Amino acid sequence: MPLVRIEIEKGNSVEYKKAILDGVHSALVECISIPDHDRRQRCYELDPVNFEHDGRSSQYTIIEITMFKGRSYEAKKALYSAIVRNLELKPGIPGNDITIIIHEPTLENWGIRGGKPASEVDLGFNVQV
């Protein structure tokens, strides 16, 4: 159940934004084995005056992923690589213009499924990837 927040500069097409969302989701499914239907992503567009990115192009993209703690270093490394690969391919964002940050609160810090701690819920998938 990763929560994804993507920040980009305002002014891109619907297709461009959809390609980013699809590319990130595809990498999450591939590398950390989330179910394909598990999509919780938000794309924020910022005016250039509110989005400083010294030395980067107008395609600069920040991707923050908040997910359950438990994924291995290797899975995270593969995830970073897959996201960059996917976004370089479509919509054509240079790898150096992509920053990815992972936040990993422990399961007891997630209130899900009617307000239960995630540590007490059968998630239906393994976070130890």
Q: In words, what does this structure look like?
A:
With 129 residues, this protein is an alpha/beta fold. It has a single domain (3-120), classed as Macrophage Migration Inhibitory Factor (2-Layer Sandwich). Helix content is 28%, strand content 22%. The chain has two helices and six strands. The chain has helices at 14-32, 73-89, and strands at 3-9, 41-46, 61-66, 98-103, 111-112, 116-117. Strands 2-1-3-4 form a four-stranded mixed beta sheet, covered by helices on one side. A two-stranded antiparallel sheet has the order 5-6. Helix 1 links the parallel strand 1 and strand 2. Helix 1 (14-32) runs antiparallel to helix 2. It is globular, with a radius of gyration of 15 Å. It starts with a strand and ends in a 12-residue tail after the last strand.
Quantity of strands, as a count = 6
Largest sheet: number of strands, sense, barrel closure: 4 strands, mixed
Whole-Å distance between the termini? Answer: 14 Å
Classify the helix fraction into a percent range.
Answer: 25-40%
Number of helical segments?
Answer: 2
The CATH homologous superfamily: Macrophage Migration Inhibitory Factor
Q: What order do the SSEs take from the amino end to the carboxyl end, as H and E?
A: EHEEHEEE
Radius of gyration: 15 Å
Side-by-side strand order of the widest sheet: 2-1-3-4
Pick out the low-confidence regions.
Answer: none
Give the rounded overall mean pLDDT: 94
Integer count of domains: 1
Quickly give the CATH architecture: 2-Layer Sandwich
CATH class: Alpha Beta
**Proportion of residues in β-strands:** 15-25%
Oligomer: single chain
Q: Which fold does the CATH topology refer to?
A: Macrophage Migration Inhibitory Factor
Quickly give the structural class. Answer: alpha/beta
Shape annotation:
globular
